[in-house]
Amino acid sequence: MAKITASVFTSHVPAIGAAIDLGKTADPYWQPVFKGYEFSKQWMKEHRPDVIFLVYNDHASAFSLEMIPTFAIGTAARFEPADEGWGPRPVPAVVGHPELASHIAQSVIQDDFDLTIVNRMDVDHGLTVPLSLMCGQPSAWPCPVIPFAVNVVQYPVPSGRRCFELGKAIHRAIESFDMGLNVQIWGTGGMSHQLQGPRAGLINKEWDNRFLDRLISDPAELSLVPHIEYVREAGSEGIELVMWLIARGAMQDAAGGPAPRVVHRFYHVPASNTAVGHLILEDS
Ligand code: DHB
Ligand code: FE
Predict the structure, then answer these.
(1) DSSP 62
(2) Ligand nearest the Cα atom of residue 152
(3) Which CATH number does the domain housing residue 160 bear?
């Protein structure tokens, strides 16, 4: 059977992608950000999964106000980097895993979550920047990736509680797939940031670090935090953090098993307009 072995959580700032693509990672501004991912790149080499289930949000690249799926699963064999206005990032295309993605769609929809099935979709910085942070600049990504896009842009967006429950359903789906695959689940976006209005530039270190503590040790309680707290404390784009609860809900302790091991924790401000947070949790 397939097994979820680890979850990875990371911010997805587009300027981080540009710093990598333009060879600026050693610049004094960027060096402390990338230092926090040195452990992670080595860990990825030593814990190479067969598939990554990557929870992220699209930023009006694949979707627009014309069509707003709350939860969209990418079932295609291949996903191209999106053109976000400056041309597509010079990163490899993402190879999908249609068999596992179809199984997850079947299982999760039968488990009462309405997913939109997407057979064709480009993937933007929300997905490609986390891959770059964790894998560097390979000529091909180390394994297939199932993109799972969540609407955190246009209200109404899903509650933390629903995201956490969805994570549990994804756990049940993956661990009932009849193939011995090592699967990682990644939750991306956040941490505190606001890109618009009078509070643009907002960063809240204390709240972010408490979010990391709560995500590690009491995600069920954290899942009850209402949207208004995210927006008030972590800024309008801080709501991206509800996606981390999907990955956290897919760990075995949410299904009554033992707690995961924290193997890496990192926090740095700022990167562009955003607080960068990062965690790696391993299940045994
Ligand atoms: C920034 C952060 C984001 O999450 C995003 O999607 C776009 C821009 C920023 O920090 O500039
Ligand atoms: Fe974003």
Answers:
(1) S
(2) 2
(3) 3.40.830.10
Q: Is 35 helix (H, G, I), strand (E, B) or coil?
A: helix
Residue 53 lies in a domain: yes
Q: Which domain holds residue 94?
A: 3-79+90-259+266-273
Q: Distance, CA 258 to ligand 2 centroid (Å)?
A: 32
- Ligand 1 atom nearest 190 alpha carbon: 4
Which residue minimizes the CA distance to atom 5 of ligand 1? 13
Q: How many domains does the chain have?
A: 1
Q: Is residue 141 part of a domain?
A: yes
From the number of C-beta atoms within 10 Å of its C-beta (0-12, 13-18, 19+), residue 248 rates as buried
Pocket of ligand 1 (CB under 6 A): 12-15, 59, 193, 195, 237, 272-274
pLDDT, one tens digit per residue, over 99-147 is: 999 999 999 999 999 999 999 999 999 999 999 999 999 999 999 999 9
At residue 73 the predicted structure's pLDDT band, cuts being 50, 70 and 90, is: very high
Pocket mutation for ligand 1, best pick of 195, 199, 241 (most atoms within 8 Å of C-beta): 195
For the segment 260-271, what is each residue's pLDDT rounded down to a tens digit? 999 999 999 999
Active site residues: 125, 193
Whole-Å CA distances, 9 to 2, 28, 87, 130, 226: 21, 24, 27, 9, 20
The one-letter code for the residue type at 154 is: Q
- Residue 146 belongs to some domain of the structure: yes
Is the overall model pTM greater than 0.85, yes or no?
Answer: yes
Burial class (CB in 10 A: 0-12, 13-18, 19+), 30: middle
Do the domain assignments include residue 27?
yes
**Ligand in closest contact with the CA of 17:** 1
